Input
Amino acid sequence: MKHIASAKNEIVKQWKKLLTKKGRLQTNRFLIEGEHLIEEAVRAGIVKELIVRESYQVPGSWKRNADVFTIDDAVIKVLAETETSQGIFAVCEMKQASAQLERGRYLLLDRLQDPGNVGTMIRTADAAGFDGVVVGPGTVDVYNGKVIRATQGSLFHLPVISMPLEEAVNALHEQGIAVIGTALEGATSYQTIAPMDALGLIIGNEAQGVAPELLSYCDERAYIPIRGKAESLNAAVAAGILLYHFASVD
Amino acid sequence: MKHIASAKNEIVKQWKKLLTKKGRLQTNRFLIEGEHLIEEAVRAGIVKELIVRESYQVPGSWKRNADVFTIDDAVIKVLAETETSQGIFAVCEMKQASAQLERGRYLLLDRLQDPGNVGTMIRTADAAGFDGVVVGPGTVDVYNGKVIRATQGSLFHLPVISMPLEEAVNALHEQGIAVIGTALEGATSYQTIAPMDALGLIIGNEAQGVAPELLSYCDERAYIPIRGKAESLNAAVAAGILLYHFASVD
Output
């Protein structure tokens, strides 16, 4: 156990770097905050360092493979990304999920920008029983603090695979698995497409949708009918409706 | 057209009151912000005053029934609830929806606390073709700025009725319309309940769910199965899945 009082300490500078995408990529580590998320990360076996306010009693099960640091308020201020921080953090190791797509249901994210949307989609994919999430280039970094908080821990449950979406579509097609792209034009209502025990479902950028070239590789195009006077659905809500529809065979 | 330069002007003080629930209730008016929402409010015929920065060209169609005020940055600062304000506001009149529940589909909100959730639920109910939203006591004020922004204008499309939920359930029952409550215990999967052309769907408080007494009046209890390791769904996502499921007969 080591105590760190100053925000200028060299170790704190290393932790601070984990608040940026660049720093996370360089070290293959990321920082999480709050008891609930740390509990989930401990279960996933990825916690390397625990960083807590002095008064905090670290549960024994948390310490097994992790170094423990206590910190002063000055350090909490520097690391906290939430307004009401509990002053409890952990440095975790990224576990690269196998890039092999087994037979199953996958959510594919094409250039999604909003961290809250992406995190909520990962959480919903987990709840719906999907087997993994494929994150294409141009989608917000899933190790961004806002994404992780919105996943509510599902980032640690579900394989999250970074790869070009064309590759993922190819890998699914080689196994005879259909890929469904969401689109407004040339699309059919999702309700007319039956649930499937294996599929790829592509959700596109909040404003532009799925990229046209990627859409051209899809076996079907699905849209969600809007019946009232609303112009559109919230992106995370739309994803939830589709995830639960296509997974509802069990 | 009147110009107001000082945030201390008496008219500005009246506008500021509309940022509080008390001020809104006293005047039966509320304040909205941003071009898109004002466009929708103009179409709904509820705009009484337009408040814009001096450089802004007010569309002719907006002015028909509204007084126009131009304001300086100091006033914008006082009224703006968003970080990147366009400096365009409108004072609107609350239109009390008829408390008569016609035959149709209604979303009932029981003590929902998060403004973003409530706004997104109203938006999704509109998109799914529901006929109205009944807001019970204890749910966040739907004229709260965050709620209105999350509805993306659906607050002006859809009847939003404030009444005790027991009354709403009675009114639906008198017409032979089933009411479905969401619950985790003693509930069946929503997928086993068929879509309906008329129903009441009750969504409960984010942490506590639907109040037990209210639940006891329901004809069915529905839950959304969680298949992966996620503990729960985001409340707005859960509502979206149910709204689209029960409305999918058309």
Notes: The longest strand of chain B covers residues 47-53. The first helix of chain B runs from residue 10 to 17. The two ends of chain B are 48 Å apart (CA to CA). Residues 45 and 65 of chain B are 8 Å apart (CA to CA).
